[in-house]
């Protein structure tokens, strides 16, 4: 069984405006939130925003959209979290009977699938 891990976050909340003004969290907590966004849930949130979906996940998504790129690791993109690859874009099974690609060779006026034939014409 996996060991339980606690994460914590300090929040400054505007109760009248019903919004978080400031959040302070450790790396584990931020990594967890980004992991949630990297699931296909982020795609669902993005698609449902057109219909005015409300709640904490859409708010988290919008906050990430608005996050200044200064806070993103070098050579990384917010799109990795905002638009994660869905399982439909990842092959699930290896194709065992896939045809093997054929190589063709050519010289100035001749094409062949044999590397020795193309050089003799």
UniProtKB/TrEMBL annotation:
InterPro entries: DUF674. PANTHER family: OS01G0153900 PROTEIN, OS09G0544700 PROTEIN. This is Uncharacterized protein.
